[in-house]
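FOLDING PROBLEM:
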Amino acid sequence: MNFDGILDFIQKYLYRFSISTIGITDIIQIIIISVIVYQIIKWLQLTRAWTLFKGIIVLLLFALVSVIFQLDTIAWLLSNSLSVGIMAAIVIFQPELRRALEQLGRKNFFRAFLFSSDEESGEKSFLTEKAVNEIVRAAFEMSKVKTGALIVIEQKVALGEYERTGIAVDGIVSSQLLINIFEHNTPLHDGAVIIRGSRIVSATCYLPLTDSMELGKELGTRHRAAVGISEVSDSTTVVVSEETGAVSVAREGQLYRNLDREALRERLNLLRPDPAGSIDVLKKWKGLLRSERPEKFKKSKKSKEQ
């Protein structure tokens, strides 16, 4: 290949990488688009839509690979299902989109873009050993007097949409505070408490009820809500029955009933960060429950407390 051929190759294949002149308007557009994308991602992190967003990214990467390796059939299927998927996402997350537009109308526009609070930053803290002990102590103190309780512990999937249905608390997790919240005839006793890290962020929260038809008839709305929130997120929910005083845990759509103090503490300790950082919560939870099975909703026996 002579020198002229090399020049033709450079002009043909590398011309697209040439830098054009950037003006003031281009810089303004880049800044505006960057801020909008940042705000959208920050909003997604506070809702269940963040999980959907990560799934969309995986599909886009898969589509890119199919184009690079000329997988025409797969690329055609992905391209033709994209528009349907966008419409489905809009329908599924219609409440979140509506709430986001309402918040945009209430906020100071420029302040929302330039500043962000700790609550909106999406930073996660972790459950501490002290918080685990306080939750266990509160659960069994309420179990003794048959005080109903519903305690949701947030994990990777943000529960901001359910947090906003309640009343902001923002208090350090303590057994006294939890007991006072769920005490009969108090303003905050009806609904769920959401814990993020080692802080109670909200009380009297409304949770989605499970659609499972296998849930036993002896279990009421509190247990249905615990299973429901575990179906739409990776949270762990501690339930204290108002009828029997039995303590249960809901996770991944399953209800583990009639736990004693040590069993509850062991399950909550799984939510704490691993010092080695090599085992995630899901693997630890599956490892603990490998030798046992959750009670079947329909065939569950009555608890010893009944």
